[in-house]
Specification:
heterodimer, A: 465 residues, D-Maltodextrin-Binding Protein, domain 2, 2 domains, four-stranded mixed sheet, 44% helix, globular, B: 291 residues, mainly alpha, MetI-like (chain B)
């Protein structure tokens, strides 16, 4: 018995000594391997041929890799690039990237959602480009082409960590065919929440049609916050983070949750869909099958979901069947800064893994991937709001939806606060909507949110309640 | 001393013989367990400041867990899952199959055993895909068979679906174990029971059960522990809707990977380990009392 205790104590002591390894990191020289003749680089992204973000995956595989390899060969450098592309839910991708950063096998250039930057930067998994690569980063001529608001996606505490891929805007997409059947106009543009609800009531009369898809619940993760809660909250005049505090269970949050209650307890949305493990993908399919009237999404929906050729839920008649409208504030003028309409924006960025063996070559590749030439190659004959203004000027005019986003929506939009605590707040918001979908009242969900938020970020960080 | 050394190896050689095994157990079992305990007393996280410099928070994680409604929920769901699908479901179905197949024609017996085994040996991902296809709301086989599509079984009845799923999934082991245990029941006693006119149930209770009690306990122990630690339900429901099927392993995964709280998740893992040890100790006690 005694011997057992001694052995246990020794083992615990051993573990404590070893525990110095938890979370440790070493500094490295940014000029390492700068003259190497054989270079291996890996690009990690959430895109895969035949699946999610197919265009992005094809661009990396069929354009970036061969072009860059060829150009380096001309310089006498033998480069091997691997694309570590997966096509999974954003939350799963984030976990993969976070785990990758903890090991030595992660990609050299890693695509992440700009909103994760705060956490990764505070954890040291991602470091400022200047530290990883050197000061020449600031001399890149591409920065001039990137608007400040977009560049901010790749910044944390005033320092550049990554290069954005572009941005997006959120609108209400609607099915014009269903609208016609319900007696609603094809150029529909609501000016208050009440008009959205009344359109939903009319759509409810159509059999087998879900009037409104307003993302809710924890299974949809960030899509709930970004496409549902935050645009509505902006419509009340509040932002989730203001004056150094997070929005607690205030009247404005309550007003947002009231909408959820109206939609999901009032038969205007499908509560079951919100709770299914793959509910968001299903909602896309249902929209493409003309079974959803209205759906709040980013222009990603137009580009990558219902696109007739490359979408994950293709809609052959997208160009005639899908309409879009700006998201109205609660009532005219009640939005943030007195706006009548609101939106939210985000975007992905590419960072360089501080553990890369070839920081200089990784930066060269990153520069190359963000050149005007590469950005145009990425789009092919599609359109997207890229990070580069010179490219946008050329490509957006050809696509009515994306030029609408660029001209009408981006001037109104807001970005999420890139703080390390944001994901916790987002989770609490998702849980509040999940409670409503599961049967709670808006009042109960608001109280639960306040409690969860205080627990997550501390009482001194929460306003109202 | 010499009388205890039945193998005649001597202490030195005996130690040499067991040390590879002990080393493996130490490296792959004892060390990870201690490591988990250590992480469990820190606020180690996947991202953010405490991923670089985790600090020791003592028993805070454990105290928080006991006060966390989601943890209590997960613990309760694990109990339901183990009792429903292992202790009752797999045990009874496995025994019933073994008992009924005893006298069946060899061909029939092989076919049934093959099918039951198939559900056990297929990879989890394949099985999960098949079950989602069966239980799907729009085009699910079950909905089509019942002639009433539109029920999202995994959303409306998540735990019931999982209990049935896991019973189906794991019965093969119990069936095989009971199959061989039943072969050890002396046929003469069964014969005697039949001549005195005992019913099927009376035979099982008074003749068969006393012979296989040890097997029942062993089987229940093993399948309970496997079920308590099973992660396959994640592939079906991901713990949803709204935590309604979030058993402890899934809760741990969600806390560690989705929320990035590695310290808290490690603390819960330790608690799950303790639950496992308590269950194992209980069964061992029962086994010992029997002998």
């Amino acid at each position: 018995m005694m011997r057992g205790k001694v052995a246990l104590a020794a083992a615990v002591a051993g573990a404590l000594v070893l525990s110095g390894c938890l979370g440790q990191q070493e500094e490295a020289d940014s000029g390492r391997n700068a003259d190497a003749k054989d270079v291996t680089l890996t690009i990690t992204s959430n895109s895969v041929e035949g699946g999610k973000n197919e265009l992005g995956a094809k661009w990396v595989n069929d354009w970036v890799i061969p072009e860059f390899t060829k150009r380096q060969k001309d310089k006498g450098v033998n480069v091997t690039i691997r694309h570590d592309g997966v096509g999974v839910d954003d939350a799963d991708y984030k976990a993969k990237v976070a785990l990758d950063f903890g090991t030595d096998i992660g990609g050299d250039i890693v695509e992440i959602d700009g909103i994760w930057l705060g956490e990764f930067a505070q954890g040291g998994q991602v470091r400022p480009l200047e530290d990883v690569v050197g000061e020449e980063v600031d001399g890149w001529d591409g920065w001039e082409q990137i608007p400040d608001a977009v560049e901010a996606l790749g910044e944390f505490e005033g320092r550049r960590y990554g290069v954005p891929l572009g941005t997006d805007g959120r609108v209400i997409f609607f099915n014009k065919k269903l609208f016609a059947q319900a007696g609603l106009p094809a150029d529909w543009q609501p000016t208050s929440w009440e008009e959205i609800i009344s359109a939903a009531r009319k759509l409810k009369a159509l059999p087998g049609v879900i009037p409104l898809q307003l993302n809710a619940g924890t299974a949809m993760s960030e899509a709930t916050t970004m496409q549902g809660v935050l645009p509505l909250l902006a419509g009340t005049g509040s932002e989730i983070w203001a004056d150094g505090k997070w929005q607690g269970g205030t009247e404005d949050v309550r007003a947002v949750l009231d909408v959820y209650e109206q939609v999901y307890r009032g038969g205007l949305g499908d509560p079951v869909l919100q709770q299914e493990a793959k509910g968001r993908d299903r909602s896309f399919e249902l929209f493409a099958q003309n079974k959803v009237g209205m759906l709040l999404e980013s222009d990603y929906f137009w580009r990558s979901v219902v696109d007739p050729t490359t979408g994950v839920a293709k809609m052959a008649d997208r160009d005639t069947a899908v309409g879009w409208a700006k998201i109205p504030a609660m009532t005219s003028g009640s939005g943030v800064d007195g706006q009548d309409f609101v939106s939210m924006s985000g975007g992905s960025i590419r960072v360089i893994n501080p553990k890369t063996e070839f920081p200089q070559q990784a930066w060269e590749l990153l520069e190359f991937m963000n050149s005007a030439e590469a950005t145009k190659a990425r789009l092919g004959d599609t359109a997207q709001i890229t990070q580069r203004e010179d490219v946008n000027a050329e490509v957006l005019a050809g696509d009515p939806m994306l030029s609408f986003i660029a001209e009408e929506v981006l001037p109104l939009t807001r970005f999420r606060p890139g703080l390390a605590d944001y994901p916790k707040v987002s989770t609490a918001l998702q849980q509040a909507t999940a409670d409503i979908v599961a049967g709670s009242s808006a009042a109960e969900a608001t109280a639960g949110y306040q409690e969860a938020l205080v627990k997550a970020v501390g009482e001194d960080q929460v306003s109202g309640g | 001393m010499a009388s205890r050394d039945t193998a005649g190896l001597g202490v030195g050689r005996a130690v040499a013989f067991v040390s590879p095994a002990l080393l493996l157990i130490g490296v792959f079992l004892v060390f990870p367990a201690l490591w988990t305990i250590y992480i469990g007393i820190t606020d180690y996280a996947l991202t953010g400041p405490s991923s670089v410099a985790p600090s020791v928070v003592g028993l805070d994680n454990f105290v928080e867990a006991l006060d966390d409604a989601l943890f209590t929920n997960a613990l309760w769901l694990t109990v339901v899952f183990v009792l429903g699908s292992a202790v009752i479901g797999q045990n009874l179905l496995g025994f019933a199959l073994a008992w009924l197949l005893r006298g069946a024609r060899p061909a029939l017996r092989r076919v049934v055993e093959g099918l039951v085994l198939l559900s056990w040996i297929l990879p989890s991902v394949v099985v999960a895909y098949l079950w989602i296809a069966v239980l799907d709301r729009d085009g699910g086989t079950l909905g089509a068979l019942l002639g009433s599509p539109g029920t999202a079984w995994l959303v409306e009845y998540p735990m019931a679906s999982l209990v049935i799923f896991n019973t189906w999934r794991g019965t093969a082991f119990s069936m095989m174990l009971y199959g061989s245990a039943l072969a050890a029941v002396p046929p003469s006693q069964l014969e005697t029971a039949r001549t005195v006119g005992a019913s099927g149930w009376q035979t099982v209770r008074d003749v068969v059960f006393p012979h296989i009690r040890g097997h029942v306990l062993t089987n229940t122990l093993l399948i309970s522990l496997w079920t308590a630690n099973d992660f396959t339900p994640f592939l079906l429901t991901a713990g949803g809707p709204n935590h309604e099927s979030e058993t402890l392993p899934i809760f741990i995964y969600q806390q560690a990977i989705a929320s990035g709280r590695l310290g808290y998740a490690a603390a819960i893992s330790v608690l799950l380990l303790l639950v496992n040890l308590v269950v194992a100790a209980l069964y061992l006690l029962l086994l010992r009392r029997r002998s």
